[in-house]
Task: structure prediction
Amino acid sequence: MADGTPDPSSDQLPTEMKRCPPDCLAALEQIMTGRVNTGTAVRSHHANSLTSVAPQWPDVVVWPETTLEVAALVGIAQQFQVPLIAYGAGTSLEGHVNAPLGGISVDLTHMNKILAVRPDDMDCTVEAGVTLQQLNAELKSTGLFFPVDPGAEYATLGGMAATRASGTTTVRYGSMRDNVISVTAVMPTGDIVRSARRARKSAAGYDLTRLLVGSEGTLGIITDLTLKLYGVPETVLGAIAAFDDVGAACRAAIAGIQSGLNLARVELLDAAQVRCVNARARLGLEEVPTLFLEFHGSSASCLSDFDSFKSMAMDEGGRDLRAAADEAGRRHIWKARHDAFWAVKTSWPGKDVLVTDVAVPLSHLAEAVAQTAQDIEAHGLTAPIVGHIGDGNFHAIVVFDRSNPAELSKVEQFLDRLVARALAHDGTATGEHGIGQGKMRYLTDELGPGVNVMRQIKRAIDPSNILNPGKIF
Amino acid sequence: MADGTPDPSSDQLPTEMKRCPPDCLAALEQIMTGRVNTGTAVRSHHANSLTSVAPQWPDVVVWPETTLEVAALVGIAQQFQVPLIAYGAGTSLEGHVNAPLGGISVDLTHMNKILAVRPDDMDCTVEAGVTLQQLNAELKSTGLFFPVDPGAEYATLGGMAATRASGTTTVRYGSMRDNVISVTAVMPTGDIVRSARRARKSAAGYDLTRLLVGSEGTLGIITDLTLKLYGVPETVLGAIAAFDDVGAACRAAIAGIQSGLNLARVELLDAAQVRCVNARARLGLEEVPTLFLEFHGSSASCLSDFDSFKSMAMDEGGRDLRAAADEAGRRHIWKARHDAFWAVKTSWPGKDVLVTDVAVPLSHLAEAVAQTAQDIEAHGLTAPIVGHIGDGNFHAIVVFDRSNPAELSKVEQFLDRLVARALAHDGTATGEHGIGQGKMRYLTDELGPGVNVMRQIKRAIDPSNILNPGKIF
Result:
């Protein structure tokens, strides 16, 4: 490593860690009396994997309440050489909070204070354990909101930053990459680093904020974060449009985006997904590829943008274009969209469900989705598709039986083909779910020698590999 | 360094490099016959500092034409342990292209091909030496444009990425941080790294794109980049508004931004700057704090947003609100704004001019600008102020005599106070010009132990410190 030429084929990160010894547990209990738990129920709850990797329990779960306590935890982890795994709400999908080498699960949900809301600056500072729902409830009286919407309202903002979350509104407002102004993080040295000042932009040195956003707890533990806020739009107009095929839906969406319509959400559901959503939310939609849309702006601009989009959609054979009649109707649409996972889950009771994601350049989306649909059919899989089409990002929600090795293997092979196709379209193995454990095997295919650079950084910042080992690399 | 606890007080980067020996020059000539120049005029042209540091010449200038040639240059630099300094158009303001330890200036202007424009994906891929002007000229027929506008139209896009440039349109379209999808960079190992695939978003590992954007040529040499493009707005409406004081102008601007008006530019000129601009561009403006504005959108939304802004401005005592009568009038306004530097320069012929920048949270801007104006007056300095007010970012254009040590020292002390004030407002030492040589002394004040993390990264990626040594740290 010192010669700057690491061997890309070897992981080279220490993985022979000790399980938490009794002395370590005693040290934890000393600094965090009553907030240390080694019970099986709690440890099981903090191991979490929706990938093909089984849940892997931490040795102990702790609940720090301050950044200084997190720094003390880093000191203990260094002293005993045991892993620290940051834990928010456990909503991540690629095994980020699993503990393959045991260690200490650092549950940040006690750090749930909203430290400051500054309407004049359109920003706020929150502790890492504050949830999206909590923040937006607090903001209600200010006329501002935080727009990143990964679907899970109870996700913590620290976890959303650590996984570089995005979601339905990213086409308009960007992802966590774009909306985190600064984070406070405890580094493996124990240093408490504030990644940037509160100015909206800075050219002062390397972009530590963007380095920590998406680092999945492997470089530092985020304890608070300063976020951009946005004015609640004067008007929010929800709409639905039906198409004969996925390609037509994609082309209509691209036309709308290119024309600069104020589209804040552009979600694609394939026929199978519409079927599930109909069953759960009784939407009564025609079971064909469908766009769920949302326009943000003034009342006049929303209506005019809806009309413009209508004619673009009709050019692509779109039909049954309907604006939601009222706010309740709009909320009903988006509740149904957000419950896509549960709609699939309840359509196949007793089955396991794995949500995977890839993203491709916009112009490749229709083809990538169509190829995926063909693949699903050809291999006899069940996997409705839903996508953040404005970002070229789509999910397949795969239904299978985890306890059946043949089915599991079939799903793994499908994931391999899905990612290979995304990469062939110059896309990414993951648009928003992250690498975690589930997508480690694709990272080198995607970024080649870029992964060496990531390893150089990881080894330089966390040479003992105490922070979330066994993830990303 | 291996123990992860570097001493923040020591630089710890190798600085005892050799000047280019004859063997090195011969090796360069062998791979780049006819594109190697050691003449004094050329070397002088490639040393460049508008800071208080004198120009420092490289030993030799080379013009690579391919990424592979840049990789070969890295090999030669490693072999002879001489510095490599990436050079675009030389428009940077903080001494980024100076060669304090000599070495090889890598002039990327021969790499000026637009490799692809993809209207359906609203992106393009260009070589690092393509200029902003060249790209936007090429895009004209597509109805798309690249929005980042640092003022220097002949800046190269590679240089803009390396310095994380922003400018007048950042309030609407973001900076280079937001608009670079991916870069190709040659790393100190000689590895050619593509920082990301072409999908609009990705959660695949660390954000290498944002690590390289703003790294000022110290981690890798960017050789091509993929950029986001935007639809040319249907209507672009320019406007001017006069105010009694800077605070009133700032408050009006904040109100407009918070209301979600489609403001694409919000520039503040103080009275001294208006005087200079009047003299140069014959604008005939009242010499008081003035906002230059631009609205992007549909014709209806621009007019309605202008009317809304008018009433907000009048609430703050704004007057003389005028929309530009036509496209020529609008261009005249922005030409005048972009020539602010030259307007100052020609107002004090024979004097030196130093453009400095800081940024603060929006709500602190009025106070920070007012304090700066008082400071300028109290110390008998000449320094008109101009700002990208929507980002809380402002410049003082300091007029002085570089050859007079007392004046130079007075300017340095002013810069120290300016940055100290920005930091006291939780702002940054540089909103967009970068650290380079000129702002190195402020980085630790701004980011404390965060600078240790930057050093860890620099040492891990470039242990011999061959890439742009003597910058940032």
